[in-house]
Batch of 2 targets.
Target 1
Amino acid sequence: MDITFTEEDHSFRAEARDWLSRNVPKERPPDDGQGLREFDLAWQATQYEGGWAGISWPVEYGGRGLSLLQQMIWHEEYARAGAPNVGTSFVGLNDAGPTLMIHGSEDQKVRHLSRILEGRSIWAQGYSEPNAGSDLASLQTRGTIDGNEMVITGEKIWTSYADIADHQELLVRTDPDAPKHKGITWIICDLSPSPPGLIVEPIRMLSGIDRLCRVIYDEVRIPLSNVVGQVNDGWNVVSSSLYLKRGTGRIADQVSLARTVDDLVELAANTRGPHGPARALDNDELARRLATARAEVIALRAMTYAELSRVERDGHPGAEGSFGRIFHALLSQRVHRLALDILGPRSLDIDGASDDHYWTKEYLWSFTETVGGGTSEIQSSVIAERVLGLPHDR
Ligand SMILES: Cc1cc2nc3c(=O)[nH]c(=O)nc-3n(C[C@H](O)[C@H](O)[C@H](O)COP(=O)(O)OP(=O)(O)OC[C@H]3O[C@@H](n4cnc5c(N)ncnc54)[C@H](O)[C@@H]3O)c2cc1C
């Protein structure tokens, strides 16, 4: 991909910067619960009304149909402006929406796509189970067809935001006798209003935040018209949507880490250091780590551009995309640890009234980065086998 910015790209950037400077919410989003839902939906609606939702979604589905480079520019300006993380809108915008565009029926597209963009619905992803995470195709939640309904029984875990979502993209086993990748179906499960037999239990995390849930299905009945793609073809639905998802879902996070490092430099300039009255920024060790972090986010930016280039060329980020994901996850953990070292003992006051606990919660959250959406070990195996050509580890 040619990463030379055209006149059009420059004016797009200027327009985005101007709009964001006037519209980014001043307050931080609540940590979880209904407050977070309302905050995220309102912010998504504001972006939609301003013409900034679905930058790279096709025009026919309500997006702007712009280039990947312009999507990247938007992410950069978004992070620069300190706009909130995509949060609860993540699954709808980056996964369910693109999947419905490719595999959804006309009725499913009409019913769901505009609601996602307009900030009128939140989606959750019901893939992982207690015994199916890295090896997702081992999932056992059962879907049995009964007339024009599917009856679901089983359990999903680590479902982000299931307690405040409207719909769930659900993977169930519909043919237990078929090879494990062949007997899976992708179906839309409505979470609100909650159907009989469905129980959602939030899981309290170390940080005291409730963003993940356990979801139990006890003969939950879903109309067969909610199946996306064909019955037993769910693995294909998950895999082949990759083209439209284009593997760019995590780019926003990668870009926003640069902003976090800038915020830390400011924090260090305004915080008393660990030894004596001097600013944290005057501490040699902290200053050296901040400088290293700055260099590393620049390296991450270069990797992100290389990833975009591969997506533009091949339609997906390829196995090399795992380099950026691992590097980002580990760098994010180092950066958030740095925040705690700048704050010193104040960071232990997790329930305190000051703003310091924000950094402590972000630090604890950063541990999830090497797990969610595919662990670093799995990403490392992808690199070993598919990039380096090493033998498969049995
Ligand atoms: C913040 C967060 C949000 C999440 N949100 C969702 C969501 O919305 N929906 C959803 O469905 N899931 C979600 N997940 C779950 C996530 O996808 C799984 O945690 C992840 O896929 C790992 O699966 P697991 O937890 O079952 O761990 P396991 O697969 O049991 O792995 C345990 C450990 O063994 C290692 N391991 C496993 N297999 C191998 C192997 N072949 N080679 C080397 N090492 C291996 C792993 O790397 C890991 O260290 C979320 C997770 C987190 C942390």
Note: The mean pLDDT is 92.
Target 2
Amino acid sequence: MRAIIFDQPGGPEVLKLGEWQDAVADKGELLVKVHASAINRADTLQRRGKYPVPPGASPLLGLEMAGEVIGLGEGVDKWKIGDRVCGLLGGGGHAELVNIHQDMCMAIPKDMSYESAAAIPEVFLTAYQALFWLAEIKKNDHILIHAGASGVGTAAIQLAKLMDAHVFVTASSPKHDLCRTLGAELCVDYRTQDFHLEVMQQTKRRGVDIIIDFVAGPYFQRNLDSLALDGRMVMLSLLGGGKPDHTDLASILRKRLKIVGSTLRSRTHDYKVELTQGFYKFAWGEFENGHLKPVIDRVMDWSEIVEAHKLMEENKNAGKIVLKVS
Ligand SMILES: NC(=O)c1ccc[n+]([C@@H]2O[C@H](COP(=O)([O-])OP(=O)(O)OC[C@H]3O[C@@H](n4cnc5c(N)ncnc54)[C@H](OP(=O)(O)O)[C@@H]3O)[C@@H](O)[C@H]2O)c1
């Protein structure tokens, strides 16, 4: 089969379309002809040699896919040949064929394209896990979402709005309109404004119940300062660096804060199945009725993979960069 491959770690230019051994459906797995996949930051880190592939996962790039079932492994009883499915992968989505466990698949809604469906799994499952499982979102919570126009951020805004949350985001200002359209009440340009001051003013000095953070180091103290009593913070990335400049830990005790970190890719198969099924049950009707939608920056042919990685690394996308597997 054809797949996106690279011979040695490096910049985007190491990526190319090449040949790889065909994927094979094992027990309980589907063989899927991939029609679309999408880029994630983890792909760019893996390309640079900075994201070791979890044991048992395909070494190929691509953490999600949408496609058509063309083969059934032993014991598959939930799907049939021709079904349209999308799902989260440990790797291997940037290929013509992929094998995926039947319990990790979600049925693509009738009117949804493969390109739209490929933009859902990684960012929506991450945002759902962060808000519902880790931060235990409640109705009407006040929530600060950093990198609000990122793939995960745009999914998190929409999921939070389903809980009637008051959503505040940080993002570069050209991306504010998108965040507002999705439901953000306050958009802060972190390059020119101090999000802590803005959030405290907006909440009349109460602070927010939940922070979804991707920036880490330079935000850590201001995140603690911006949380309300019993606040929860979920840390998903270290985009700004892993070391806080200055931290006064007293507020963690005083405000009874909960701080949790997570990486979805390293979770066990059973955890990911439970997450996928829980998300499908909670959210799939909302995609069908239009309350949730994958936010797509652009769709590119997979032959444009070098350009696609460059765009993401230059922070040019708002929402997902989808790859059409042609
Ligand atoms: N832990 C997990 O389970 C998990 C799962 C999925 C993704 N992630 C991580 O979550 C992050 C978002 O992923 P994504 O695919 O949604 O990303 P994305 O669509 O590429 O968006 C990332 C955005 O973050 C902003 N940004 C980048 N560096 C920044 C910095 N130093 N300070 C402030 N803002 C910065 C940029 O937007 P602006 O224009 O607003 O600056 C950029 O476009 C990535 O780091 C990814 O690795 C973690």
Note: The chain has a mean pLDDT of 97.
